[in-house]
Amino acid sequence: MKILVTGGAGYIGRTVVSALLDAGHAPVVLDSLSIGPIEFIEGLIFYKGDIGDSQILDKIFYDHPDLEAVMHFAALIDVEESMRLPSLYYSENLFKAQILLNSAMAAGVNRFLFSSTAAVYKAGGSGEGLQENSPVDPLSAYAASKLMFERVLADTCQEHGAVGMALRYFNPIGADPKMRSGAYRDDPSHLLGRLTKLSTRGGGLFSIFGDDYPTRDGTPMRDFIHVWDLAQAHIAALIFMAGLRESRFEVMNVGSGAGVTVREFAQTFLEVSGAPIDVVVGRRRPGDSAGAFADTSRARLVLGWSPHLSLQQGITDSLTWEEIWRARSHKSKGAN
Ligand SMILES: NC(=O)c1ccc[n+]([C@@H]2O[C@H](COP(=O)([O-])OP(=O)(O)OC[C@H]3O[C@@H](n4cnc5c(N)ncnc54)[C@H](O)[C@@H]3O)[C@@H](O)[C@H]2O)c1
Ligand SMILES: O=c1ccn([C@@H]2O[C@H](COP(=O)(O)OP(=O)(O)O[C@H]3O[C@H](CO)[C@@H](O)[C@H](O)[C@H]3O)[C@@H](O)[C@H]2O)c(=O)[nH]1
């Protein structure tokens, strides 16, 4: 199948592009490269542009009348920034996404897969896995923009007789096992990114943001999903959507199904990396939740998908990718 992939130069989008190519599909990538690195689009069918620009969207749908689905990854994803600049997040993640969706519907491309997030849930650190109908409580403009677009997508699919799906990702870790993509930010804010940078810089202090949450060791709980398992969920979702003959909208959790606390994660990282990192406890980070983990039974049942890669594998792949990416960036910077 030929698929329009927005945000295909980003961490997850580029990894899904590789999974699509491996499975024999034909991705067409649209990305502004405002965040994703240019190295990620080498060798791909690529359009540089904005998802809110209907001219470029018209051109893509005109150039590729055989597009069968849209996979929509392009978004702003920084939770803290979204608290400071909420209108920017609603503009990028909600209104521009609607321009994209309407263009797809107008072009007759009526399968639309959307990257949503576990951050939409009310996550109190309980021992229960979150189901798709568990209560929602988006604490940031980022999470709210994602939940609002889920509703826009559901209603638009019904109006047009189209098929839509929102995959609610939990916390992606790791890299493409063939090392074609991985996390690329110089100054990551997320847990594994911080630990990986410390490790490759020879060690240092790692601060856990709070240990007074209602979890088994007081540190927040998350569900870490290997990005390659996440990519495979997209392939399964695409096949499922392609087989549907009538309008439908689905929401699906994509996580590992296991809750791991930040302290447990840091401990596992130290064991895998052997890096001389000292773990200290600092203050809570604003906007953080106690967290939870996914009940993935719906994705298993409906998509026939299940995760296979371990936490340790995610950490190992992240460390390997970091070495490769640093070497590549240094080389290209030196060459310029
Ligand atoms: N990374 C996570 O932890 C996580 C968790 C849950 C959900 N998600 C969702 O997954 C998707 C991909 O996340 P990621 O980690 O790969 O992020 P990323 O920042 O690496 O990738 C996003 C890509 O979209 C592009 N982009 C941004 N705005 C654009 C616009 N208006 N027009 C065209 N291109 C634009 C960027 O240049 C970038 O290449 C996002 O929708 C995000 O909300 C991510
Ligand atoms: O130096 C650090 C960095 C993070 N953490 C903690 O680690 C946990 C995970 O944080 P992070 O890796 O930043 O992920 P989340 O805040 O859970 O958010 C991620 O996961 C969401 C899905 O659950 C996505 O929507 C977001 O885009 C993505 O950043 C949180 O409790 C943080 O407080 C620390 O203790 N120290």
UniProtKB/TrEMBL annotation:
Coiled-coil intervals, chain numbering: none
UniProt-recorded name of the protein: UDP-glucose 4-epimerase
Domain named NAD-dependent epimerase/dehydratase: residues: 3-244
Family: Belongs to the NAD(P)-dependent epimerase/dehydratase family.
InterPro entries: Epimerase_deHydtase, NAD(P)-bd_dom_sf, UDP_G4E
Pfam families from the UniProt entry: Epimerase
EC nos: 5.1.3.2
Cofactor: NAD(+)
An example Gene Ontology molecular-function term: UDP-glucose 4-epimerase activity
Pathway: Carbohydrate metabolism; galactose metabolism
Keyword annotations of the record: Carbohydrate metabolism, Isomerase, NAD
Lineage, uppermost ranks: Bacteria, Thermotogati, Deinococcota, Deinococci, Deinococcales
First-level EC class: isomerase
Protein species of origin: Deinococcus indicus
Reaction(s) this enzyme catalyzes, per UniProt: UDP-alpha-D-glucose = UDP-alpha-D-galactose
One BP term from GO: galactose catabolic process via UDP-galactose, Leloir pathway
